[in-house]
Structure formats: C-alpha cells, structure tokens
Amino acid sequence: MFNKKNLILFFIWFITILITLLWTFENSDKVQKLKDQIKNEKTDQKIEKVINTAYYSLNLKKFKIPVYSKYGGIEKIGEKIYYISGDLDFYLFQKNKKDQYSFTNLPIKKINNNKDKFVNKNKVIIGEKAWKFFGVKDVLIEEFKTFENKVLIISSLYYEEIKDCYNMSVYLTEIVNEDIFKISKWKKIFSSEMCLKIDLTKKTKFAAASSGGRIIKFNEDNVLLSIGDFYADGVNGPMLSQDLNNDYGKIIKININNKQHEVFSFGHRNPQGLYIDKDKNIFSSEHGPRGGDEINLIKKDKNYGWPYATYGTNYNSYNAYSKDLQKSNNKSKRVWPVDETNNTHDNYTKPIFSWGDTFGASNLIVYENEYFDKWKKNLIVSSLAAKKLARFVYDYENNSILYLENIIIDKRIRDIISLDNGNIVLLTDIGDDVADHAEIIMISKSEN
Ligand SMILES: [Ca+2]
Q: How far is the CA of 292 from the centre of ligand 1 (A)?
C-alpha cells in the first residue's frame, strides 16, 4: 500500500512528467532542434570511409566542425590541427586521452574586421549571403627567427566603415603560451592598396568570391599573400590584375617586421592555392573563368597573363561541352572576351598545368613526408567544384607534369595540409543547409 513517503515520490514523478509534457508541447520546435542535434552528433561526428587509389587504400575520417561558417582555414603544429572559421571562431582539433579526436574552442581575442557593419550596410544590395564571403580567408602558424614565439597570421577582408569600402588585410600575433593558447595583441601588418566598393563590378554579386587570400612563409622576414582580382577582370569591371598600382590579381610579398610590401608576381585571377616546398619552389593554383584553372610555378616579377591570357573560356559558356553550343553559330560564347593570345597563353608565363573542364582549385601542397612514400614530392591540388584531389607527379628537372591521378572525395574542399605524421587533412565547404557544416577529413592509409 502507499505510505506517505511513496505518495510524495509518486507526486513528484507525476509533476515531473506533467511539466515535461507541457514543455515539449509548448516548445515543439526546440525539441525538434534538439532531436536533430543529437541525430547529427550520432551520424556525423565521425564517419569512416575507405577509398581506393592507384598505390594506396585510403581511410577517410570525417569530423563535423562545431560552427556553420564559410571560408576560414586549417593549420597545424606537429599533429595538432587549428581551425579558424570565416567568422573568426578558433578551434583546436586533436586526439584526447581516450585517443578520440575532439574540437576545443580557443577563446582568443578576435580581430576587428567590421564584418557585421559590412553585412548590415550592404545586404540590401548583395543579399543575405553577403556574410558568407566576407571574413577570414586563411591562417598561418609559423616560426620566424625574428620572433621569440611562434607566430599566428590570418588574412581577412576588412571593412572601412567611413569610406564604405573593403580591402584584404593581414593580422599578426605571437603565440605567447602554446599550451593555453595565449596570444599577444593583434597587429595589422598589411592592407591591400585600393579600397574596393561593392559596385566595383557590374553585377551586384559580391566580388569577394574571387579574393584569394592564401598566406605562406617565404623566408625569415617575409610572407607571401595571394590576392584575387575580385572579378575586376576587364569584362565584368575594370582590369586590376595587369595594373601594378594596385594589389589585386597579385601575389604580394609582405615583410612582417617593417610591414613593407611589394608585388611578387601578377596577372593572376583567383589564386587560392600557395605552397613553398623545401627546395623553395613556389607553387600556386588559381581558378580560371570557365575551365582554365591553373597550377603555376611562381617566379618573382613574372606576369601570369590574366585576363589577357587563359586556356579557359567565357564564364557564361557553361554549356561549352553541350550539343547546344556545337549546333549554335554563336562561337563567341567560347571566347574569353579579352583574350589576346588566341588561347595560347603566348608572351606570358605559362602554367605548368591547366584544366579544360571545371575543377575549382582551392589549395595545394607538395607532399614531403615519408608516410605515403610513393607520393613523395607530388603536387596534390584540392578542388571545390570537382570535389576531388588531383595528384600530380612533377618532373622538377624539366618542369613538366608526368602523371595525374584524380582522387574522388565527393565533398567541396577548401583547404589541404599534411601533418608531421604524414596524414593529410582536408577542410571541406559548408552546404546551403545550416545543418550542413564544413568538415575536417583525416586521410591515412587503410589497413584493409
Ligand atoms: Ca595564367
């Protein structure tokens, strides 16, 4: 029979159930969100997949990034991976004591790039998606002899509120304590010359999709920064890449001590990939207009041709390979309007490789580890549109490409790095759905 104590317990149980039912009923959308969250955590936290390539079976482990943010980048110290989102959220991704990977939020002070002000002012014209393109483009963690500590450098768009224009800026801080990730005060070391207005290009589409922004260490005093043409290519707006009086469509050398900068190479479109190997070869990958993505070997003061020279076609000829165009007499659709070289790239520094079909080159590395020993010194280029890695065997003596293998990843890839243990790490792109976060993909050898 119920004694007094049991009755009280029953009453508490009954009230709890009642409150839960009422709360669930009142907050059905919140409940759905929680359910989705749990579902995502279960299914997307870590998905393993094995894919085959010519020499290796690869194990791909996918980890969903905690925030929904476009662009940003990944960097490493040894086997620790650092992720910075396009909105300046900073995370450490590493194995915990249980040998499982997890993200730790590092609450470092954010730089003030005025993103919110830019979006609020311009979203009426650009649309709600303005936030996607505005923000951090890359992150670099490196040692320089001129600094006592490791240095953290990021590239980001910066909005000048008074003039209502934006530029590409680079910020530097020292990592004073690596264990607790304490940093010194942020210093701005570069702002691109010529502040861009959103009506730079004819279309209202926000030009920052063609911004470049990759940073690499060049030597003990300098970094190289790639900057895109922001679609100001002589067709969709003024021509910036061939004009040495601005910093767009260029690779820029920046002295991180005295902040002086100079144009290193020019005639680029949207060079999102930049890598310097142990022998000081500098490779860059860039987006072409429609087809015509390139890998270039970067030499000082060279002109890489854009927009006068490209193997690509007119941006509007997305049906270049369709029967439609073959039947049509409108062959001008195929021609990049300001091409001077009849698609030969003559009189300009030619790429070492250019794609005919759509690739969407995002970043590249030279694989310099013993782990995938058959890939040693190969170029590995990541792609957005084609959702794959392109592995090239490059003949360093004759400067030519000998071999290409396509490795299908089936995700738009934004960034690629290799760790000290030889694993390769990719950062993928977000999807349109806010639940579709970017991912970190760890690539190792499959034991199968
Ligand atoms: Ca070129």
A: 8
Distance 395 CA to ligand 1 centre (A): 20
Distance 428 CA to ligand 1 centre (A): 26
pTM of the model: 0.87
pLDDT band at 40 (very low <50, low <70, confident <90, very high): very low
Confidence (pLDDT) at 133: 87
State the pLDDT at residue 403.
98
pLDDT of residue 217: 98
Q: Is the pLDDT of residue 43 over 50?
A: no
Nearest to 231 by CA among 266, 199, 262: 199
User: Looking at beta carbons, which pairs linking 86-91 to residues 24 or more positions away fall under 8 Å?
Assistant: 86/132, 86/134, 86/135, 86/136, 86/137, 87/115, 87/131, 87/135, 87/136, 88/113, 88/135, 88/136, 88/156, 91/65, 91/66
Residues 101-124: pLDDT tens digits?
999 999 999 999 999 999 999 888
* Contact residues for 282 (Cβ-Cβ < 8 A; gap 6+): 216, 224, 274, 275, 276, 297, 298, 299
Task: For 96-219, list the strands marked E by DSSP.
Answer: 101-105, 136-142, 151-160, 165-177, 182-183, 187-191, 212-217
Q: 255 C-alpha vs ligand 1 centroid, how far in Å?
A: 26
Q: How far is the CA of 185 from the centre of ligand 1 (A)?
A: 38
> Where exactly are the structural domains of the chain?
108-325
In CATH, which superfamily holds the domain spanning 108-325?
Answer: TolB, C-terminal domain (2.120.10.30)
